[in-house]
């Protein structure tokens, strides 16, 4: 009876996974400590791959450099770069271990980001420079070997991590001995929803059992409901004790407080990790975690767009890059100012109110690209717009009309990269019609952005046009890194898509 309740309603994909598991009887019976040891072995293997990537980059570079520069082959005793590589590997390993990068769950996570590895690589080199300066050993390192190891080490580290993670994900299936053995508990509709939203092979787990709890109509009375729940839970606990899963997931929505409490009390008596899943909210916020603010605990579903260190780093980068750009582009500014004045009457610079960070209004600067009109009502530029001057058409097509916004960057009103600021009338209109549109104002607006380099610019004819643009802006906010900013700046200049719809 218990086994029928457990396996009789499994979807086909889970039945297939269960069938594969039966062909791996010994892996299914592998005790928990054996699976833990296997997971530790996988984590150690990934860590060793990081070490191999660092050593495998630095040592061949030194050997190859001596062959090219000095026409000689180094003996193992003459190698000097191993000390540098060993320190870099130590910093990378310790940092990744402390932040859980080598845990089994982290390796299976769907989201892998470039920024944490790049930041760690810079930090490791910072530690190397500090140590070599303090020990007066900087002269032991070849400058050419050091520069090449710095430049090629990060791609090698990223390649090694990508390959090892892909290998782990490929081989972690419900039948694999490293997969967690999971038991599901809930009402029929909750378990059906779980199966409908999750593929058996994509979770890195093996569902070894499912306990369906029966709902009793409210008119049956509290005593009848409690008796039925107690009977179902006693049976479920007995099955869990027999199957000995690693984890028990309670799928009952948190709104059913009394039922959740009874499940918790029942399954705290068995030696398995106990988990609650609050409906589908976890799938919407995959980065959520339990956090404390003072003595208050809560589930953190979103952090501030940028923390203090990231704000400082982005601002320093903006100030440095904008100052250099203004100095280098000063002659171009002068030429464009003369051409604008000769082409049509009116000011060189055009100022318009836009919403910036936290919806604070500011005046954005642009080179004037249209003819001036008395008491003109704002109207978005369209293709072949008669108001655009000859010089203005060139400026808009090449994005040169945006360059004066470097002044806005210096004033702290804008950033080099961020969501593009829209006219006030557009902001008020789209905020009412586009979900999460106002989140764009959680960071400073930018001269260029992720949406623009993907060709999402120019006239917005439909709400769908703006929804796509907003989706790219929110992706930028949620995935910001200084490397992402640099990538967008480079693509702004060299990518064809950045000039699409420019008119």
Automatic annotation (TrEMBL):
Domain (Bacterial sugar transferase): residue spans on this chain: 314-494
GO CC annotations, alphabetized: membrane
Keyword tags: Exopolysaccharide synthesis, Membrane, Transferase, Transmembrane, Transmembrane helix
Stretch forming the signal peptide: none
InterPro entries according to UniProt: Bact_transf, EPS_sugar_tfrase, Undecaprenyl-P_gluc_Ptfrase
GO BP terms in the entry: colanic acid biosynthetic process; polysaccharide biosynthetic process
Keyword Heme: no
GO molecular function ontology, one term from the record: undecaprenyl-phosphate glucose phosphotransferase activity
Membrane topology: Multi-pass membrane protein
TM segment ranges: 36-61, 81-98, 118-135, 141-160, 316-340
Domain of life: Bacteria
Enzyme Commission code: 2.7.8.31
Localization in the cell: Membrane
Entry similarity comment: Belongs to the bacterial sugar transferase family.
Protein name: UDP-glucose:undecaprenyl-phosphate glucose-1-phosphate transferase
Organism: Methylobacterium symbioticum
Organism classification: Bacteria, Pseudomonadati, Pseudomonadota, Alphaproteobacteria, Hyphomicrobiales
